[in-house]
Amino acid sequence: AGALAAGLVWEGATLHEPARVAHGDLWRVHAASYVTDIEHGTLDAAAQRRIGLPWSEAFVERAFRVANGTVQAATHAVRHGIAMNLAGGTHHAHADFGEGFC
Fold it and tell me: What's the predicted TM-score (pTM) here?
């Protein structure tokens, strides 16, 4: 992760390691109660099974960074015509639940 933070160059592109997404950005697409449950590990067992991964601090950190990677990729794509989030698209997000980690 530290190497990515330094900004590796690959085929003329720069890789960036996103920081955690702002709560305001999450709340635009997710129910505040769902975000809180994810962040604090208070999802019930059935909701955790539906996501497909057990809750952990590392899971939360990854989820918040991946979400910000999507926000940053969209911003860069508008500015520069192309961008991607290498970690995006690994689950099916809904406003108040997640499912199908793949």
Answer: 0.79
